[in-house]
UniProtKB/TrEMBL annotation:
CDD domains: ABC_DR_subfamily_A. One of its GO terms (molecular function) is ATP hydrolysis activity. Residues 271-301 are annotated as: Disordered. InterPro entries: AAA+_ATPase (IPR003593), ABC_transporter-like_ATP-bd (IPR003439). This is Vitamin B12 import ATP-binding protein BtuD. It comes from the Bacteria.
């Protein structure tokens, strides 16, 4: 048995250099990550990136071509039965028997999972309550809504009290109300379980997960905390400012602050784009360049300041230098009050696109385009 030691014992999941190559040479390559107890990890990637393949290997439904997977220190290759007992799996399509009642189905799963007969009734009662299935016990599964079927899928996944829950796109195909309800249930399940969940929905990561793994073309391309990713990915430091004062003078002061590499006046269109979440389309213009001067010259027509006595700008600094204090002191010295100042950072959506877009274009040329897309909203 392979032993994986950590400070507090074993990691709940250890995936070491795992590859799975299908006959067509697609699949996943050298996947390497571990999960500690209590983590809720979002597994994000475009269609065909390798999420399901990875999850099926973790849950023991598919054997890796190379590498090892251990659950609570138990090797999946050497002890598949024991290791699988520690995992609850909700595949993309829940494994339900539509003609069974909810209770009969859970009874069947309890038998399959080897839950002792004398404990079954209590345990089934607990998960029915936990997943809000009270009142539906005697209903035929076929007659229930998709949201309720997903709850039953989650119930079968947690029935045997697994340490690790693996959920493959748990909110896919649900309506907005059902999505909110299932997310809430996952959040609650995350209080007692370690959870790995795959999704196409970026805000799902922000609302549910304390860590995100991004997979692209069979390889992990990013592993980190959602709120820290932006810092590690930003190449420049950007801050948006609203300053009270004469436009030309304010712009010129900002450009001369040490560390500042670009100053771009924000228009009403930019403000509207910010409101709808899309990034401004104009390219940033470096301070002092010919382009900046010509833009300045034609600024009356090219840009429309949001208020006549204030200037809204996006200031950039190379090498991620934090120029906020320098901006503050310079503008204070010149008596141009700062009405607002906000550090800008990449959204998870921008990070995702940055990491996957080019390669996706390559992929689209070499294989059939998929009809599913990564969505940026619920
Ligand atoms: N049984 C198989 N035989 C051959 N190729 C396969 C098989 N299953 C998956 N693949 C290929 O392996 C790659 C990864 O597929 P996988 O289903 O794991 O991706 P995914 O990230 O789960 O995608 P989706 O979001 O569409 O479910 C894809 O290129 C896919 O076409």
């Amino acid at each position: 048995m392979e032993i994986v030691a950590t400070m507090g014992g074993f990691d709940v999941l250890e995936v070491k250099q795992v590859s799975k190559l299908y006959e067509n040479q697609r699949g996943v390559q050298s996947i390497d990550f571990s999960m500690s107890r209590g983590e809720i990890v979002g597994f994000l990637g475009p269609n065909g990136a390798g999420k399901t393949t990875t999850m099926r290997m973790i849950t023991g439904y598919l054997n890796p071509t190379h590498g090892s997977i251990t659950i609570d220190g138990l090797s999946m290759a050497d002890h598949p039965k024991k290791a699988r007992q520690k995992i609850g799996y909700l595949p993309e399509t829940p494994p339900l028997y539509p003609e069974m009642t909810v209770t009969a189905y859970l009874q069947f799963i309890a038998d399959l999972r080897g839950i002792p007969v004398k404990e079954q009734k209590r345990r089934i009662g607990e998960v029915i309550e936990r997943l809000g299935l009270q009142g539906r016990e005697k209903q035929i599964i076929r007659s229930l809504s998709k949201g309720y079927k997903q709850r039953i899928g989650l119930a079968q996944a947690i029935l045997h009290s697994p340490d690790l829950l693996v959920l493959d796109e748990p909110t896919s195909g649900l309506d907005p109300k059902q999505i909110i309800e299932i997310r809430q249930l996952i959040r609650e399940l995350g209080e007692n379980h370690t959870v790995l969940l795959s999704t196409h929905i970026l805000p799902e990561i922000n609302t549910l997960c304390n860590r995100v793994l991004i997979i692209n073309q069979g390889r992990i391309v990013l592993d980190g905390q959602p709120d820290r990713l932006a810092n590690s990915m930003d190449e420049t430091f950007e801050v948006s400012l609203e300053v009270k004062g004469p436009r030309e003078a304010v712009l010129s002061e900002l450009r001369s602050v040490p560390g500042v590499s670009g100053v771009r006046e924000l228009t009403q269109e930019d403000a509207a784009a910010e409101h709808t979440g899309s990034a401004p389309v104009e390219a940033e213009v470096e301070a002092g360049t010919e382009e900046a001067q010509s833009l300045e010259a034609s600024s009356e027509t090219a840009t429309t300041p949001v208020l006549s006595d204030t200037v809204k700008v996006l200031v950039s600094a190379a090498d991620r230098v934090d120029v906020r204090e320098a901006l503050f002191y310079r503008l204070a010295e010149r008596r141009y009050p700062i009405l607002s100042m906000k550090k800008e950072s990449l959204s998870l959506e921008e990070i995702f696109l940055k990491l996957t877009t080019n390669e996706r274009l390559d992929t689209a040329q070499s294989e059939d385009a998929s009809d599913k897309e990564v969505t940026s909203n619920a």
